[in-house]
Amino acid sequence: MEELKNIRNFVIIAHIDHGKSTLADRFLEITQTIEKRKMKDQVLDQMDLEREKGITIKMQPVRMLWHPHRGGKADSTRKAAETGLLHEDLTYKIRGILFQVRKKIGLGHKEQVYHNALEIEFKNAGLSFESRKNITIKYDGQSIGTYQPDFIVENKILIELKALPEIGRSQTEQVWSYLKGCDYKLALLVNFGSKDLEIKRIVYDTARGSSALSALSPRESAGVSDQIEEYVLNLIDTPGHVDFTYEVSRALAAVEGAVLLVDATKGVQAQTLANLNLARKQNLVIIPVVNKIDSPLARTEDVTKEVATLLKVQENEILHISAKDGTGVKELLGFIIEKVPAPKGSKEAPLRALIFDSLYDSFRGIVTYVRVYDGQITANDKVSFFATKADGTVKEVGYFLPSEHPTNILKTGEIGYIVAGIKETELVHIGDTITTKLQITNYKSQNIVPLPGYENPKPMVYVSLYPQDVDDFDALKSALLQLKLNDPSFSFEPESKEALGRGFRCGFLGVLHSEIIAERIQREFAIEIVISRPSVEFQVTTEKRMDLSVKTSTDWPDGEKILLVKEPWVKLEVIVPRNFFPQVTQLLMTLGGFSIGVVDLGEERLLATFEVPLRQVIADLYDKLKSVSQGMASMDYEIIELRPADLVKLEIWTAGENQDALSVIIPRKDTYKEGKAIVEKLKKTLPPQLFEVSLQAACEGRILARETLKAQRRDVTGALYGGDVTRKKKLLEKQKKGKKELKAKGKINIPSKVFLELFRS
């Protein structure tokens, strides 16, 4: 379709810290989606947590506009660069402003309207200009008249505005004739009256060594057509960490192409392979790119060979860029337009829009992020959701710049957002299909098929979350519902324990994932929470031949004989330099794993495959792997099966009270070492109390380790001045008696930051 041929939907995928966010920044700068004065690093990372940790957590869509004369094809971009267009940078800046005016007020107004709008935009852009200034026209060195263009910008470029059905040859030749008779050599003939914005670049060229006859006809710069097409580029920036793979998979389902970014200093890493496999499953066009070629540590040629071997392509098909300084990024934009196919769909077909993300707005309700596959949607349309059968009226539609930008309509092939006035979080599911209310009522008779959607991911790590204040239970439930709307990859269900009150057992894709959700609850909803140690799902068989699913330590069957415990194992793939392979192997064998194969990737790099218990993977394995390999190793894993294990529950007691949230399920042989480590860490992180606190680690009724947190002392004698020593002794005895009573009656309230510190350790 004509409306679809200029749309490109794509994502950037890579291993963590390979430069995705930086490349997105350059795209936004070059396409002038965001003004240079408003640019900042990681502009698409909207959350404070993302900026603090330096990683992308949430996918973020953004719409950019790009013109073929600025890089429609990689080859034409190189050709333009070699030719060296007259006042090239200034021309591109003016063209960006012209398209900005067209976008804001549309077509079909009078010339004066566009003239006034451009005056405002030129001032905002900091360009110097003169409006309707008389220019002397000379013939044979003598003045024969004047010419008054609409604008003279930076005393270099003339601008002539029109609002005609089309620009004819006569208008073009007229402007060229004016150039011939004045001191300016470049003009832009701009028409806002056609079916789309027309811009003609007209140059009077006397620098070609040609005769007067050869200069009698106007020429346009190389590669610029009379009708300048505008491409709509919908980019979705994705996370790189393994814990957020579900975010990546959802983004991939909404696009046709993927830029595979590989760091020239590190080469192909584990998450590179994982994300590549996800993209291939979606049958996306893959554009391989080697980034950071400006780094003194770059191994550009070696990494190019590595990527070429991985993708089975020629080395010259792989682009080289520096997202930091912008080298090669314009060529990459042109390559995206050339290689990524336009979306398919029908404007006349019934509406089908895929929900790939959503968030909760306390004023407007649920904002759904959608990719429109068929039909179109406008404000006031009545819509329905296939899965939940919920109905709503569209209050607002728009797209991302990257902030929300309302528009009149979302068409086939476009990516944007819809606000339908729905405030119940359970009525909107990511992966659901939106259509019009009438169509869903009769979708069988109209043969409307909902879009495939997404598979629900299986949680790998379980953590219990309890409000520190029991009155915050409902607020915590509301917070989890809103976060699940924004991140459906975690699950939660209510649970209750005598020591902790009411809370929720939550399942996550990894430890970092659970830590991020816990921090978001505290930051975004101001709820202080108690967090249990992370655990995986075990299968426990008791003497009564009952099979129990144990997701957290609070579920462990106490006081009942256990016949068998099974735990999940994973297949772990590690990419590591050859000289660090022995250290990595030793680490994984220490954790109870074993090697099942090694593949030589070339360039002194190995792909080693191990089988390891999942509980060891979630226990800071990533950090340990980075430590033993000096940051050079990377990993990815998948669950394979349940296997028998000798596991027990280790309990932590403070002041004689069992802290169920600190309990952990570990191998029997590690109970003393783990128990001692926990109480020592607790001693360092727990705030001092007014009385002495005993910290104990116990297993199966035996105390394995103990530490004592000394009482916080107050100088009760400091106010005394002179006098008999018995006065001091009296005060000290009174303090001692009070502390003894506190020790007998006092209870410990463990702050959530202590749980987080133990969690991270």
* Tally of discrete structural domains: 6
Q: State the secondary-structure class.
A: alpha+beta
Which stretches are low in confidence, meaning pLDDT under 50 for 5 or more residues running? 70-84, 206-228
The CATH topology of the largest domain turns out to be Rossmann fold
Strand content: 25-35%
Explain what this protein looks like in three dimensions.
The structure is a single chain. This protein is an alpha+beta fold and 761 residues long. The chain has six domains: 7-65 and 236-339, P-loop containing nucleotide triphosphate hydrolases (Rossmann fold), CATH 3.40.50.300; 86-215, Trna Endonuclease, Chain: A, domain 1 (3-Layer(aba) Sandwich); 352-441, Elongation Factor Tu (Ef-tu), domain 3 (Beta Barrel); 461-534, Alpha-Beta Plaits, CATH 3.30.70; 541-645, Alpha-Beta Plaits; 648-760, Elongation factor 4, C-terminal domain (Alpha-Beta Plaits, 2-Layer Sandwich). It is 28% helix and 30% strand. The protein is built from 19 helices and 38 strands. The strands form eight sheets. Strands 18-17-23-14-15-22-19-20 form an eight-stranded antiparallel beta sheet. A six-stranded mixed beta sheet has the order 2-10-1-11-12-13, with helices on both faces. Strands 28, 29, 30, 31, 32 and 33 form a six-stranded antiparallel beta sheet that branches. α3 (74-83) packs antiparallel against α10 and α4 (88-105) packs across α5 (111-124). The longest helix is centred in the C-terminal third of the chain and has 21 residues, at 725-745.
Quick structural overview:
The chain has 761 residues and is of the alpha+beta class. The chain contains 19 helices and 38 strands.
